[in-house]
Design goal:
The chain is mainly alpha-helical and 223 residues long. Helix content is 68%, strand content 0%. It has a domain at 61-122 and 129-217. It contains seven helices and no strands. Helix 2 (29-53) runs antiparallel to helix 5 (135-155).
Length: 223
């Protein structure tokens, strides 16, 4: 053996490595899927617990048809945003960048348009509430969105080789759209400045935070 050759490994090294691998097998796809679903269920349960803690559904002075119309419309927008922004689709690298960016931009605008349109048949509900400018709704939207936002960033870490920032922005916008469904069930105010501050602004901020964190954590090779 040449003097420059590396030393021979111990004879039992390979056997010990194989034995360690056998004792600690990689989880199969079903196990991974169960863990992902479990984490998302836990995140959803945390959001529901926060919603209940802050009072849950509050119909208040709103007529029930308005509550139902608002809830159904915002839920449809949230589901569409989650499907476009979070589901991978048929591609291993996820949705195209254009789809993700469209989700981040259009989900908040679609929400605001529906909220205003659904309130038109009830003009008395568009009145200003000077004592409620929207800061509490602003905080609630961030609280409700935080658990699923963190869970999805964790599950998608180091998974996007081409557009991690766009994916992060879409995740932020879609989970905040879902959180806004709960905020709307809690908040009876439909005055436009209140909606912009308390409901729309947190969605935009979540999309921006998602883009920033996506660049840090979602790209391949990111730590």
């Amino acid at each position: 053996m040449s003097a420059l050759s590396p030393p021979e490994p111990p004879a039992d090294l390979r056997a010990r490595v194989l034995d360690a691998v056998a004792r600690s097998p990689m989880p199969d796809r079903r196990q991974v899927r169960l863990r992902e679903v479990g984490l998302l269920i836990a995140a959803g349960a945390a959001t529901c617990a926060l919603f209940a803690f802050f009072g849950g559904v509050r119909v208040g002075p709103r007529p029930m048809p308005l509550v139902i119309a608002t809830a159904v419309g915002t839920a449809v927008i949230a589901v569409a945003a989650l499907w476009l922004g979070v589901a991978r689709g048929k591609s291993m690298i996820g949705r195209p960048r254009a789809w993700l960016l469209a989700t981040a931009v259009l989900a908040p605008l679609a929400y605001l348009a529906w909220k205003v349109a659904s309130t038109v048949p009830f003009p008395e509900m568009d009145a200003a509430w000077p004592e409620r400018p929207g800061w509490r709704c602003f905080r609630l939207c961030l609280y409700f969105a935080a658990p699923p936002f963190a869970a999805l960033l964790y599950l998608r870490r180091r998974s996007d080789p081409v557009h991690p920032r766009a994916m992060g922005a879409a995740i932020g916008a879609s989970v905040s759209a879902a959180a806004t469904v709960l905020v709307d069930l809690w908040c009876p105010v439909a005055h436009l400045p209140h909606l912009v501050l308390g409901h729309l602004l947190p969605m935009a901020l979540m999309a921006a935070a998602g883009a920033w964190l996506g660049g840090l954590f979602l790209g391949l090779g990111k730590s």
